[in-house]
Design brief:
- By secondary structure, this protein is an alpha/beta fold.
- It contains twelve helices and eight strands.
- The chain has two domains: 159 residues, Rossmann fold (3-Layer(aba) Sandwich), CATH 3.40.50; 97 residues, ProC C-terminal domain-like (ProC C-terminal domain-like fold).
- Helices cover 55% and strands 13% of the residues.
- Helix 3 packs across helix 4, helix 7 packs across helix 12 and helix 8 crosses helix 9.
- Bound molecules: 1,4-dihydronicotinamide adenine dinucleotide (NAI) and (2S)-3,4-dihydro-2H-pyrrole-2-carboxylic acid (A1CAB).
- The site of (2S)-3,4-dihydro-2H-pyrrole-2-carboxylic acid has 4 residues, from helix 7.
Amino acid sequence: MQHRKIAFIGAGNMAQAIIAGLIAGGYPAGLISVCAPSATRREALVARYGVNGSDDNVGCARAADVVVLAVKPQLMAEVCAPLQQNVDFGAKLVLSIAAGVSIARFRALLGEPLNIVRVMPNTPSLVGKGMSGLYAPEEVSRDDREFSAALMGSVGEVCWVGQEEAINGVIAAAGSAPAYFFLFMEAMQQEAERMGFDAATARLLVQQAASGAAALVEASPDTPLSTLRENVTSRGGTTAQALQVFNERQLPQTVADAMRAAVARAREMETLF
Ligand SMILES: NC(=O)C1=CN([C@@H]2O[C@H](COP(=O)(O)OP(=O)(O)OC[C@H]3O[C@@H](n4cnc5c(N)ncnc54)[C@H](O)[C@@H]3O)[C@@H](O)[C@H]2O)C=CC1
Ligand SMILES: O=C(O)[C@@H]1CCC=N1
């Protein structure tokens, strides 16, 4: 991938996940800056990955070719105000990873012209297993699209969406999704502990079942998920009993409702921040 100067505004979980992936992929640390007011988080990233650290968002953004906005949505307006006043975004590429902040809103927050790509990543980027959805308005150049996809591709898989609204679907299906699986695994670990396993063994049982299931899905791209499920489910056996409980309790509908709630919240956030 091309090497450009990248400034991360925000030093949180998601910025760390992307930085870790970039560094692991051989991206030069000297071309990456991380900016945040709190030294604790920022300096931890500087120490761990050898990137540059600063508390000066404006200075970092000015010096960068690519500005990655990685602060919480509710802070976006506050963070963008000084950037709009002091940074010429004309020749820069801006990537926002924030949920619930639209490109129309960024045009108001940062001014125009604005060369912006919306990215919706997830935290498994930290270990190179991220899933990112990207949306770019028509005017974003091929070069900038390719750079954005390569940047996120260095920490996992990417897919482009043709409509900005589809970013909210990416949030529901991938951005927020690791937390759904963690909740499921937490519940399983707790029950395994109640069954008498010590915490480490309970975690190992659940974690290996989960990562094994995901690996099997990846290794069987032409096999429907329902077939993989059926392959585990012996007639009259234990799995069938467990799945019957999930189905009686409407697990598929619960999952659908949860994903719709994530989309609804993303839409609501677009009106708030
Ligand atoms: N955590 C996740 O799984 C995902 C998060 N996102 C998006 O990523 C963004 C960041 O989320 P997280 O990393 O989870 O949040 P976080 O709370 O871990 O990190 C936010 C960071 O912003 C920094 N910050 C606060 N005020 C600042 C300022 N004035 N200037 C510069 N930095 C400032 C904080 O020091 C903190 O390091 C959010 O907009 C979220 O919607 C997107 C996809 C997944
Ligand atoms: O919970 C959130 O709002 C962010 C967006 C996707 C994952 N975390």
